[in-house]
Specification:
It contains nine helices and five strands. It has 184 residues and is an alpha/beta fold. Helix 7 links the parallel strand 3 and strand 4. The two termini are 15 Å apart. 45% of the residues lie in helices and 14% in strands.
C-alpha cells in the first residue's frame, strides 16, 4: 500500500483523534470564545497550510453572522496596510505544521502590534515559535500514524528515517508495507 493510500484509509483514526483532542480541550476553547466573541476571522497559512486556510475561511463564512478571510502570510508581510481593514477586529487563526514559518511569525507579531487581535495557533509541534505569541494553542497530530502523513513528511524523509543504520544493500531491498518505496 502506498503512503497516500494508507493515509486516506487512516482518516477515520485521525478524525477520531481530532475529536478526542477537541473534547479534551473543550474548556479552553469555550473560555477563549467567551472572552473573544467577535465573529470575524482572519486565517493565515503558508503553502499547503494556506490552502487549508482558504477552506477554513469558506467554512467559517458559511456560518450565519460570521465573516472570514484567508491570507497567505507572505502576502500579508509584503503589504500589511493593504490588509488593515480585513484583519482589524478579527480573531486570527494560524495554521502551520511546524509553527516555525518565519512569515507566519512576522505576520502575527505585526498583527498583534497593529491590531491587538486575539490569536489561535493550530500546529503539529509543541514548543514552536507561534505559541508564545498566541492566546490559545492547539497541537494536533497530522495522522494517527505520523509515518503515513506524506503532507507532513516527504517520502524520502520517511525512507531515510526507517532505513537509518542499514547498509547500502539493505536499503535497496527495504520495502515498507511489502512494496518498494516510491518517491514521485
Amino acid at each position: 500500500m502506498f503512503l497516500t493510500e494508507a493515509e486516506i484509509l487512516d482518516t477515520p483514526l485521525s478524525l477520531n483523534y481530532t475529536c478526542q483532542y477537541f473534547e479534551k480541550n473543550k474548556k479552553n476553547l469555550e473560555q477563549f470564545f467567551q472572552e473573544n466573541q467577535q465573529k470575524k476571522f482572519t486565517i493565515l497559512g503558508c503553502g499547503s497550510s494556506y490552502m487549508l486556510a482558504k477552506s477554513t475561511a469558506s467554512l467559517f463564512a458559511s456560518l450565519p453572522g460570521t465573516s472570514a478571510n484567508a491570507i497567505a502570510a507572505g502576502d500579508y508581510i509584503v503589504d500589511p496596510l493593504f490588509w488593515y481593514e480585513t484583519v482589524k477586529g478579527s480573531i486570527v487563526l494560524l495554521l502551520s505544521r511546524s509553527g516555525k514559518t518565519s512569515e507566519m511569525v512576522w505576520a502575527l507579531k505585526h498583527i498583534k502590534e497593529a491590531h491587538g487581535c486575539p490569536a489561535v495557533s493550530i500546529t503539529t509541534e509543541d514548543g514552536n515559535d507561534l505559541m508564545p505569541l498566541c492566546d490559545l494553542n492547539l497541537t494536533l497530530k497530522v495522522s494517527a500514524r505520523p509515518e503515513l502523513s506524506r503532507t507532513c513528511m516527504p517520502p524520502h524523509c520517511f525512507w531515510r528515517r526507517n532505513t537509518q543504520g542499514m547498509t547500502a544493500s539493505e536499503r535497496v531491498s527495504w520495502q515498507p508495507c511489502g512494496r518498494a518505496p516510491r518517491f514521485s
